[in-house]
Amino acid sequence: MTPSPLFEVLQAGPLTLLQDQGRFGLRHLGVTQGGPADGLAFAWANHLLNQATQLPCLEVLYGGLSLLALADCWISVTGAELDLTLDGRNQPLWEAFPVRAGQKLTLGFARRGLRAYLALAGGWHAPLEMGSCAAVPREGLGGHQGGGRALASGDQLLGRASNRAPNHRPTPPAALKQLDYVFAGPLDLLPGAQIHDFSGASLFAAFNQPWQVSQRADRMGVQLLGPRLDYRGSGMISEGMPLGSVQVPPDGQPFVLMQDRQTIGGYPRLGALTPLACSRLAQHPPGSPLRLRACTERQALESLSIWQLG
């Protein structure tokens, strides 16, 4: 099926990017991963439409997105809690529903959480750059028109949608309990790297005192404000940075490295947040409190079971 214009952007919001699962196997070239900041909400948006969970979605930061439908289609919206309307009538989050040509779809501003994910039955269409359409503005890669561009008013969004209802089911009640995952408790951190080179008092504080999300938070990394972490090890040679790496610069205030992170870094690390913890952190607005919890490798692997969508 040839892709065709399905929506026109009336209002783009603060930052709306097209994301698929990201680029892998390219960090040796200095190319970052990209992909959805909240991988769980991203996967659910596609799952609700009974399609592969890696298909591209629109990642809508803070909300404020308005689209005019140019053709009949089905969509779903997950992630941040916000008002979702179709021609002014409220629509459900975390459910699939139809949109007809000529209707106006609006995502209001988030009341809880930061990022919403809009999936299209049949999938959004965009050019692939290095095997992915994930938008990374800093590197000028991916996005709905290539070059890492965010959505802008007047843009047209392409897709291969059908007006036939997908063979979807409502979200099971047991799964709905999982969807309140964002503020459900401490963020799990798998210790590693240079953790033994921090003072004992620092380690006690890291896992027993509260942290606050700084204003310095974006898709590259999130700074945590709280107790000063005291590194007592020797200097380091730069090393590869996996998703969720918790780097500690000289000021003792850690940075959690997210999807658009640099590929290498030379600051010591406490370890790395689990993928679920990264998804949860991506929905924490600046100023919000959180706590860290050390976990084992087994616990980190068990947390991935939440991606076995019901």
TrEMBL record:
Where in the numbering of this chain does the Carboxyltransferase domain appear? 28-310
Record flagged with keyword Nucleotide-binding? yes
Q: Quick check: keyword Nucleotide-binding in the entry? A: yes
Transmembrane residues, as ranges?
none
**A family per Pfam:** CT_A_B
> Which branch of life, at top level?
Bacteria
Going by the UniProt record, its keywords in alphabetical order are: ATP-binding, Hydrolase, Nucleotide-binding
* SUPFAM superfamilies recorded: Cyclophilin-like (SSF50891)
UniProt xrefs under InterPro entries: CT_A_B, Cyclophilin-like_dom_sf, PxpC
- Please identify the protein, giving its name as recorded: Biotin-dependent carboxyltransferase family protein
Give the originating organism: Marinospirillum alkalitolerans
